[in-house]
Write a structure and sequence with these properties.
The protein is an alpha/beta fold and about 250 residues long. The protein has a domain of about 170 residues: P-loop containing nucleotide triphosphate hydrolases (Rossmann fold, 3-Layer(aba) Sandwich). About 35% of the residues lie in helices and about 25% in strands. The chain is built from nine helices and ten strands. A six-stranded mixed beta sheet has the order 6-7-8-3-9-10, sandwiched between helices. A hairpin with a 2-residue loop joins β9 and β10.
């Protein structure tokens, strides 16, 4: 299924203020992989994600989604394939009601009214927020906004799901529910997060970014067992891999 493949080759991106956030980066992610991007603040995680949906343009290098390079001509199709969930849910919720927010993407695809309604109701149901569909976004809690933002992407039925800090603002129950939902998404997932226990739960592969470059790329358990690597990249073991501070036993 080549349309599920994400490939970045020699990607470099410099912001207008002169900060080079991505430096000659190359990554290939294939169908069905669950991949985590981890690193300290400023490592380049969010900048990389914003290239995968065409929100940022490479300074040099290329991004391919499936069989085609990401260009102005292929942008519309790429955004149908890659569903992007931003770190701040307010960036995705801008319509008067949640129903209209979730319907916005399918409407823009020119789908029939019945299909739009079906997609919206399915997405709201999967997120457990059918009761919020007539509510304005600004009346929702942080966790409800997060669910609604994910629903806006699910209504587009993407083949590749890209998430930036998906558990930000969620209480423990909401976090568990999001993890459960993401487990059900069997296509490709790319998740940038500081929640390393979420990474252990969901991602078999972890890519460590450090100062705009790939420092390591491998099996998640092996990455989190490399204490020198974690220390160099300002990371710590997930809590579930840390020993008890009193007796030293693994949790």
């Amino acid at each position: 299924m080549s349309h599920h493949i994400v490939e970045v080759r020699n990607l470099t991106h410099t912001y207008p203020d002169g900060t080079t956030a991505i430096k000659d980066m190359s990554i290939r992610i294939t169908h069905g992989e669950s991949v985590a991007l981890v690193g300290a603040n400023g490592a380049g995680k969010s900048t990389l994600l914003l290239h995968l949906n065409g929100y940022l343009t490479p300074g040099s290098g290329t991004v391919r989604i499936g069989d085609y390079p990401l260009t102005k001509e292929t942008l519309r199709e790429a955004r149908r394939t890659v569903g992007m969930i931003f770190q701040d849910a307010d960036d995705q919720l801008f319509m008067p009601t949640i129903y209209e927010d979730v319907a916005f993407g399918p409407h823009n695809l020119g789908l029939p009214r019945e299909e739009v309604e079906k997609r919206v109701n399915d997405a709201l149901s999967r997120m457990g927020i059918e009761h919020l569909k007539k509510r304005p976004p600004y009346h929702l809690s942080a966790g409800e906004k997060r669910r609604a933002a994910i629903a806006t992407v699910l209504s587009m039925t993407p083949d590749i799901l890209v998430l930036d800090e998906p558990t930000t603002g969620l209480d423990p129950r909401g976090r568990r529910q999001i993890i459960s939902l993401l487990r059900e998404f069997t296509h490709t997932k790319i998740i940038a997060t500081h929640d390393l226990d979420l990474v252990l739960d969901l991602c078999t592969r972890t890519i460590v970014l450090h100062e705009g470059r790939i420092r390591a790329d491998g099996q998640t358990g092996a990455i989190f067992s490399d204490l020198d690597l974690l220390d160099e990249c300002c990371l710590e073991k997930p809590l579930s891999m840390q020993g008890c501070p009193l007796c030293g036993r693994q949790r």
